[in-house]
Design brief:
GO molecular function: DNA binding
Number of helices: 12
Order of helices and strands: HHEEHHEHHEEHEEHHHHH
Radius of gyration: 20 Å
Largest sheet: 5 strands, antiparallel
Strand order of the largest sheet: 2-1-5-4-3
Protein name: Transcriptional regulator, LuxR family
CATH topology of the largest domain: Beta-Lactamase
Strand content: 5-15%
Shape: elongated
CATH architecture of the largest domain: 2-Layer Sandwich
InterPro entries: Sig_transdc_resp-reg_C-effctor (IPR016032), Tscrpt_reg_LuxR_C (IPR000792), WH-like_DNA-bd_sf (IPR036388)
Organism: Paraburkholderia phenazinium
Keywords: DNA-binding, Transcription, Transcription regulation
Amino acid sequence: MELEWRDLAFHREIGAVIEALDSTQFWTRLTRALERYVPFDNWVALRFAPDEAPLVCAESPTPDGTVDAMFQDYLAALYQLDPFYIDACERPASGFVTLADVAPDNFTMTSYYQRYFKKNIVGDEVHFNYAIDARHTLAFSLGATHRYGERDLAVLALCAPWVIALMRQRLPHETFEASHAPGIDDAGETIEGGAPGAGAGVDAPTYAERFAQVAQAGGHTPLTAREVEVAMLTLSGFSTRAIAEKLSISFETVRAHKKHIYTKLNINSQSELFALFYEAGPRGA
């Protein structure tokens, strides 16, 4: 087998990733190996679990070295609307996942997409997922300001087996504790670690508690469990028909639930519903 110089460089990068498996530079080395072949603009490694805020293993540093406020909002509450988080919690499995694989039918019409995703991720996102067990998933996200092309997705899918295998080998070296935002060490390397407060996953209130807080504060009648479920699916980007299919109820029943939600919370649109959810979380806490 003949190797070109590009192949030799790639093998050196893979060697560096393997060498860093037990070091703080693992995730940075992994991104360097991948970005030789596919351009992306931000990355983060997280652990997902149902009803818990994601725990951060490492993330790409901001250009000015400051804490990313929008990402803190994600960790505080908005993760509950993230299609990658929802899919990993509902169907934990190892593999390469694209936004098209998990995004609901009305995702691009949601306030979450317009007010967070487009501003923070901007164009597209893919995940390498390693299912740790039935509840926990180690997720490595690559975000881009552009849409990934067919070649990009094909290359990343081709890399998935060894990326996920390395993630599995890395797992024993992750502590999943609250830590600091990434900085730069004396050698110019990224110092990896989660954002402040990232270790408080089990203490983070659920969306049901958030809506209860909103209802109580405004003197509204509390939403039922089913109404909360419909509200969150709506905010996540599921159309009325998609919600009906997901919950195995009729289209008209979903419409009735939405009417009750809007009446109880004294709102008239999905954007107002998002505002209530958002203000009860990171901005309104």
